Amino acid sequence: MEAVAITKNSRGSAQKARLVIDMIRGRSVNDALAILSHTNKRAAAPIKRTLDSAIANAVQNADRANILVDVDDLTVRVVKQIPAEQSICVAYARPRWDVHIASVGISAISRLR
Fold it and tell me: Which is higher by pLDDT, 5 or 1?
């Protein structure tokens, strides 16, 4: 079971956001939330909101499928993190980035490796 949450067009440098994403990639959800709560980076707030959304999506998908899921058993997998496309007609296009976060259940971890 996998639940995905997407954040698009967040302001800031993709390189700086990648620093925060690399800190939480492959960690458990509780560890990732603790890291994001104590990280003093601007990109941490939208990434934390995206992770919260992925957790909520995982719980809702499990309820629909009548599967018991424990939030403590979920891990974070960043599907992709890319710079957003820039507009040509703007004189100074501020940097933006996208992030796709997937919360993966314990049973699916063995298939991903």
Answer: 5
Sheet with 2-11: list strands edge to edge: 2-11, 96-104, 75-83
Which residues are within 8 A (CB) of 21 and not within 5 positions of it... i.e. 6 or more apart? 43, 47, 78, 81, 99
Cβ contacts of 49 within 8 Å, gap of 6 or more: 7
Residue that is written with structure tokens 């499928």 in the block:
65
pLDDT digits (tens, 9 = 90+) for 18-76: 899 999 988 888 999 999 999 999 999 999 999 999 888 888 888 888 887 777 778 88
Cβ atoms of 97 and 6 closer than 8 Å: no
Q: Domains in the chain, please, with CATH?
A: 2-112 (3.90.470.10)
